[in-house]
Specification:
Blueprint: H1 3-24, E1 34-35, E2 43-46, E3 49-59, H2 64-69, E4 82-93, E5 99-100, E6 105-108, E7 114-115, E8 133-134, E9 139-140, H3 146-149, E10 155-162, E11 171-175, E12 184-188
Parallel strand pairs: 1-12
Antiparallel strand pairs: 2-3, 3-4, 4-9, 4-10, 5-8, 6-7, 6-11, 11-12
């Protein structure tokens, strides 16, 4: 066998090995724990649950659509230097066991200011995010629910943020999964 034939044979085996490694990853679902707001819809893994940002935006209590999202909020309205900010999320349990979605979120700006969710009474607001036990392949919001068919396709985690946050962009949503020390991050557009 010539040197040229040996080199060719080695190259063929190397290509076959690379192809085998590439194909072995097909069909695997693995999501990072960081998503970017430049592409709403990025997935992040937080514990056993996959979360997806549907949309995040300022909410106007005087808008017909937005006033519906604010039903059941008992906190005082935003002050002159504050605004409502809504984060609409979708979640899926991609494990083979029941798992609970989290209710532990916060938003952090580039100056290190933290903003925490404002409680919403889910008994009167069908958009309000509440932790749920999802069965394998189960999603939140529940298919067929008001939030599922709503304009955002997600459930609302509501924040009251300072107007100065727009100067401290990007904002980052931190998702703290139950029993997991690693924080999952989604960059938010403001």
């Amino acid at each position: 066998m010539s040197v040229r034939s040996i080199v060719r044979l080695a190259a063929i085996f190397a290509c076959a090995a690379l192809l085998a490694v590439g194909l072995s990853a097909c069909g695997q679902k693995s999501y990072p724990n960081v998503a970017d707001a430049n592409n709403d819809g990025g997935y992040v893994q937080a514990g056993p649950i996959t979360y997806q940002l549907q949309i995040s935006r300022e909410l106007n209590a005087y808008s017909v659509e937005d006033s519906g999202y604010l039903v059941g909020v008992t906190a005082p309205p935003p002050g002159a230097d504050e605004e409502w900010y809504g984060v609409f999320l979708w979640a899926k349990n991609q494990t083979h066991h029941p798992a609970t979605t989290t209710d532990s979120f916060d938003i952090v700006d580039t100056q290190g200011n933290h903003y925490y969710p404002v409680p919403i009474d889910s008994r009167v607001n069908p958009y309000a995010w509440t932790p749920q036990v999802l069965q394998p392949l189960g999603t939140q919001p529940t298919p067929g629910s008001t939030a599922y068919y709503g304009a955002t396709g997600g459930q609302l985690v509501l924040f009251k943020i300072n107007l100065s946050a727009s100067a401290n962009r990007p904002l980052t949503l931190e998702i703290h999964a139950p029993g997991v020390s690693q924080v999952s991050l989604i960059s938010l557009d403001l």
